[in-house]
Amino acid sequence: MADTTGRLLALLALLQSRPTWTGTELAARLGVTSRTIRNDIDRMRELGYPVETTRGTTGGYRLGAGGKLPPLLLDDEEAVAVAVGLRAATGITGIMESSARALAKLQQVLPPRLRSTVAALSSVVDRAPENTGTDAPDPEVDHTVLTAVATAVRKVELLRFDYRGAARLVEPYRLLSWERRWHLVARDPSSGEWDTFRADWIEPRMPTGRSFPPTPLAGGDYTAFAMRSIATSGWTVHARLRVAAPAEAVLARINPAVGVVESITDTESVLVTGADSLETIAAYIGMLGMDFTVESPAELRPHLRHLAEVYLRAAAD
């Protein structure tokens, strides 16, 4: 299937490059038989491409009206899946406009039999608010940042960027999308330490063009590592709380990405957690249902007192 798809792409490129080709010429260029070319032409027509047969002493093929379009060699399920994915991506801050443009272009090149299906999906699918877990606005990620990071990951090249006022040089390994945010999992080549970086805080510099020998991550699970490290470095604000409960009990109540737990004694632990605002931390920490004290920052305490007063008034007879 992969060879057939690649040949169809090459065939489409040839048909787009000049007005008319004979079957013999196409077969010679692609290194196949004339019968294979005829079968490939039939397949392209099934996919909705207007390939016409020309008359003459030798005959040939040409693209009809609407044929000079980007290739879409997808079956029905694949085309609908791509359209639905692009529709969902229109709700991701930073790339929503690009996703909307791509969806519009996809609809233009869809075979006629699929346009009504995709149009129906687009017209009846609504989106609910994405940001329901914090009072902070969604972060904006420039598509050029994602492109620069993804390119460095694909090429296995060192990535240089500015990050919250500091210059960084890292070995990039993975991009993770989580909670409307993009994160880069990378390794410092000097110290050997692994870390996770928020993409909306990354300001790429010129490409280094320097390759590096990849180093396996212990355990091999980049997503699990990122979810753990985001708790301590991937949020706008962080808090350190001493909880009157064993570490196992606290871990059972939280998502790994929103907190790191350190055991102090059999009955006490420290929770390091983060969010996009102190108000969000104050609201969610109450869901632990456990006694705790704030070690830092002191600015969190007024938010806790405010919520405590609100709850007391609501609970009053």
UniProtKB/TrEMBL annotation:
Coiled-coil annotation: which residues? none
Please provide an example of a Pfam family that matches this protein in its UniProt record.
WCX
Q: Which InterPro entries match?
A: CBASS_pafABC_assoc_protein (IPR051534), DeoR_HTH (IPR001034), HTH_11 (IPR013196), PafC-like (IPR028349), Tscrpt_reg_HTH_DeoR_CS (IPR018356), WCX_dom (IPR057727), WH-like_DNA-bd_sf (IPR036388), WH_DNA-bd_sf (IPR036390)
The alphabetical list of record keywords is: DNA-binding, Transcription, Transcription regulation
Q: Which PROSITE patterns match?
A: HTH_DEOR_1, HTH_DEOR_2, WYL
Under Gene3D superfamilies, the record lists:
Winged helix-like DNA-binding domain superfamily/Winged helix DNA-binding domain
Regions that span the bilayer:
none
* Record SUPFAM superfamilies: Winged helix' DNA-binding domain
- Boundaries of each HTH deoR-type domain copy? 4-59
Name of the protein: WYL domain-containing protein
